[in-house]
Amino acid sequence: MATKNLTTEEFENAISGEGITLVDFWADWCGPCKMFAPIYEQASETHDDITFAKVDTEAEQQLAAQLQITAIPTLMAFRDGILVFSQAGALPAKSLEELVQGVKGLDMQDVRKQIAEHQATHSH
């Protein structure tokens, strides 16, 4: 499955479903983004059970601002609608693979529990 370009309108829908969605925030003028693109594309061929999405930060400036993207490329991973990873910088293929395996291996019940506890302690 190839990578899919996301617009601001599609973003919420794309990340809120069940399963894993990776989002690569990039721009045409960004050298490291261009280096990362084929690695990301290759990983999307390997893992057809994961959605590999891309957001052009030039075209979707509002979304980039909303998500506080300050450096590109930035890679975000969502699982079942929850942001579980966010990091700026191009990843080598091996690191991307490790990230994918890590996200696949997450105990989502535990993740939800941690989020609930965090929200409970930070709500007052």
Automatic annotation (TrEMBL):
Instruction: Name the Gene Ontology molecular function terms of this record.
Output: protein-disulfide reductase activity
Pfam families the UniProt entry points to: Thioredoxin
The record's keywords, sorted A to Z, are: Disulfide bond, Electron transport, Redox-active center, Transport
PROSITE patterns registered for this protein in UniProt? THIOREDOXIN_1, THIOREDOXIN_2
Q: Which GO terms describe its cellular component?
A: cytosol
Q: Which InterPro entries match?
A: Thioredoxin (IPR005746), Thioredoxin-like_sf (IPR036249), Thioredoxin_CS (IPR017937), Thioredoxin_domain (IPR013766)
What positions does the domain Thioredoxin occupy?
Answer: 1-105
Superkingdom classification of source? Bacteria
Q: Which PANTHER family match?
A: GEO12009P1, THIOREDOXIN 2
Q: Which family does it belong to?
A: Belongs to the thioredoxin family.
Name of the protein in its database record: Thioredoxin
